[in-house]
């Protein structure tokens, strides 16, 4: 009886310690976003005070109106949303198609080609700026959304992720049975592989959408007209060389982050439901 009580007490202590660590981790994760919100609701005087304000102020609307008056905020949000959604959909389709080919089809040079794709993951993306810019210039795509969408449609990590997921979750016997029944390779991919790999779709969609939304360097290089700016490039216009309004800058950054958080939460719910659906179908 004493041993059982001691074991129960130790279990409670371990769980309590784990919950405490989780609570501290959650606070540390949320605090930067809360601090950005606090700065977005205060003016420069409150932000520059020592100690600075730790509670929200009353300048949220005023700071946001300054953002709207300085840059085309909603136009830039729409541009980022359009580019991120279109590119993510293209990545999901093309990378899953390539991943299925590498996982289930046998062709000459398959392993060598797959290794070559993996090697490209070790190359810094900055090294490809000049050749990509040269191609975009020759295609006359400067200041065009195509200059951002098309280079991002193929992702080495996406191909690797889909190949590994399809290899482990789509049985070869099921593919062979479908081919015996007369299904083409694309129909096997579309009708058999896709319902199983929906969880992989959700995961890759979250990763790629966030990456494209937060991309700054490549849009800065190829977008010349203000009407084509994505939100990350447009936010650069809030920084003045002479007068720095930190409240306005943080307001623009805060509101630019809100759509990303909303979409992340929506995809997160889809990811959880897709895990259940994929498990049942498999």
TrEMBL record:
Q: Point out the signal peptide segment.
A: none
Location (main, coarse)? membrane
Q: Which PANTHER family match?
A: ABC TRANSPORTER PERMEASE PROTEIN MG189-RELATED, ABC TRANSPORTER PERMEASE PROTEIN MG189-RELATED-RELATED
Q: How does it sit in the membrane?
A: Multi-pass membrane protein
**Which family would the database say this protein is a member of?**
Belongs to the binding-protein-dependent transport system permease family.
Species of origin:
Gracilibacillus marinus
Q: Which SUPFAM superfamilies match?
A: MetI-like (SSF161098)
- InterPro entries with a match to the protein in the record: MetI-like, MetI-like_sf
Its subcellular locations are: Cell membrane
Query: Membrane-spanning residues where?
Result: 12-35, 76-100, 112-136, 148-167, 188-213, 248-267
- Which Pfam families would you find in this protein's record? BPD_transp_1
Give the ABC transmembrane type-1 domain ranges. Answer: 77-267
Q: What is this protein called?
A: Carbohydrate ABC transporter permease
Keywords (alphabetical) are: Cell membrane, Membrane, Transmembrane, Transmembrane helix, Transport
Is Nucleotide-binding among this UniProt entry's keywords? no
The upper taxonomy is: Bacteria, Bacillati, Bacillota, Bacilli, Bacillales
């Amino acid at each position: 009886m004493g041993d059982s009580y001691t074991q129960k007490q130790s279990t409670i202590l371990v769980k309590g310690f784990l919950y405490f660590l989780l609570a501290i981790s959650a606070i540390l994760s949320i605090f930067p976003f809360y601090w950005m919100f606090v700065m977005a609701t205060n003016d420069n005087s409150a932000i520059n005070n020592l100690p600075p304000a730790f509670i929200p102020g009353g300048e949220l609307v005023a700071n946001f109106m300054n953002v709207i008056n300085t840059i085309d905020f909603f136009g830039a949000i729409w541009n980022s949303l359009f580019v991120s959604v279109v590119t993510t959909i293209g990545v999901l389709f093309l990378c899953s198609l390539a991943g299925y080919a590498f996982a289930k089809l046998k062709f000459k040079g398959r392993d060598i080609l797959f290794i070559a794709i993996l090697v490209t993951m070790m190359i810094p993306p900055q090294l490809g700026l000049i050749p990509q810019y040269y191609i975009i210039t020759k295609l006359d795509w400067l200041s065009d959304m195509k200059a951002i969408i098309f280079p991002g449609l193929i992702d080495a990590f996406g191909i690797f992720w889909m190949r590994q997921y399809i290899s482990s979750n789509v049985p070869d016997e099921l593919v062979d049975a479908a081919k015996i029944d007369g299904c083409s390779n694309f129909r096997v991919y579309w009708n058999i592989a896709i319902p199983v790999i929906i969880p992989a779709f959700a995961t890759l969609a979250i990763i790629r959408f966030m990456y494209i939304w937060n991309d700054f360097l490549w849009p800065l290089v190829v977008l010349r007209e203000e009407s084509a700016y994505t939100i990350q490039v447009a936010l650069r216009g809030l920084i003045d060389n002479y007068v720095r309004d930190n409240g306005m800058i943080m307001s623009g950054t805060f509101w630019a982050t809100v759509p990303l958080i909303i979409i992340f939460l929506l995809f997160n719910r889809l990811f959880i439901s897709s895990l259940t659906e994929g498990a049942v179908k498999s």
